[in-house]
Amino acid sequence: MAQLWMLEDLEPWRDTPMPGDTCEPTTYWASPEMLDLPAEVCCEIDARIATVTIDGRTEHIAHLGNGFTTLIGDDVGAVGKTRLRGCLVWDRYLWTRYRTQPTGRVRVKERPGHLVQHETLLTTIHPGLFNVVFDGPTVYCETSWVPTDFGVRWNTLVVELETWK
Length: 165
Known about the structure:
Structural class: mainly beta
Low-confidence stretches: none
Largest sheet: 10 strands, mixed
Order of helices and strands: EEEHEEEEEEE
Number of helices: 1
Mean pLDDT: 91
């Protein structure tokens, strides 16, 4: 079974799958260029790209195997067989941008770290509150260590595709 990297958004949510857990994440595929991904979280997988039209909108979906599908941007090129490079991104609010519902299940193998980025905290007129401005490249860090003046942008998971229905 294929092992992939998956970024987990930081939205407050009631589920935080731990190693050994299975989940059915709503995902899209991110290329290294799309999210400034460091090489550590990029992988490659064969996929079959198809189009789906819902409510007059055409969306691209990648079939990764074992019944797992993920949404993919319009810049994917032609439909058919291809090799994707990058990682899955679990977006719990994916339904606000897409109409297609991805399918599939993954088993979490590990939660090895985070993607972090340099952050500057700008004071506001409200005591104790600030605005966060991120700049510079996105960097992979193991869970136990985040450099000073860096903020977590994504949690990272290593997942394995499970057989789906």
